Structure to design on (44 residues):
């Protein structure tokens, strides 16, 4: 398994400093919310 710290970045100039997937503006909280609602990792 890859190191999660290499995949998540926090930058005060991107998404108001919330944790995002490195190189994107996809917030980690959005991914976790979707998984909590039952979405599978293979769904778009």
């Amino acid at each position: 398994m890859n190191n999660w710290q290499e995949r998540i970045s926090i930058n005060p100039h991107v998404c108001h400093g919330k944790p995002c997937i490195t190189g994107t503006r996809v917030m980690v909280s959005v991914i976790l919310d979707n998984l909590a609602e039952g979405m599978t990792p293979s769904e778009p």
In short: The longest helix spans residues 28-36.
